[in-house]
User: What shape does this take?
Amino acid sequence: MKLRITLAFLALSALAGLASAGAIKPFSQADFDKLTQAGQPVVVDVGATWCPTCKAQKPILEKLMQQPAYKDVTLLTVDFDADKSIVRAFKVSMQSTLLGFRGRKEVARSVGDTTEAGIESLVQKTLR
Assistant: This one.
């Protein structure tokens, strides 16, 4: 009985954690269109696996997306090398570019920022 209660508590805790975290997923045009048309906040992360700046940004973005304040923000990741049509569509010239959208409007853009304050400022702009 005690094991069953503990397992139920752990399952509920995991679900509560998921509900309070922003989603991180690979970019798809369908997801982007659905989210932006609904007025949802979106951050597009254009990065490359070989990029040291992108590697520095990743843990900051993951940490921010775990904060309850950003639970409604969706982070969509774009591979700079593999997703060239998406990179061109967003007029991105280099990896480590972050784009912030509030609804259909781009409200923030940064390139190469690896400061927590700078990246958080971009994410916050999607919520205003």
